[in-house]
Amino acid sequence: MGVPGIAMNTGRMIPAISFGTGTSFFNRPDAVASHIQAAWDAGFTSYDTATIYGTEQGLGSGLKTLKVERKELFITTKTPDWSWDKESIEKSVRQSLEKLQLDYLDLVLIHTPAPRYDTMRRLGQLTEDEIKQLPDNMDAKVMDNARLQAWIGLQHCVQLGLVKDIGVSNYTVSHLQNLLKHEEVTIVPAVNQVEYNPYLVDRVIFDYCKEHKILVQAFAPLGHGKTLLEDKTMKKIAQKYNKTAAQIALRWAWQLGITTVTKTEKAERMKENLDYFDFNLTDDEMEEISSLNKNERRFGDPARFP
Question: What does pLDDT average to over the chain?
Answer without folding.
Answer: 96
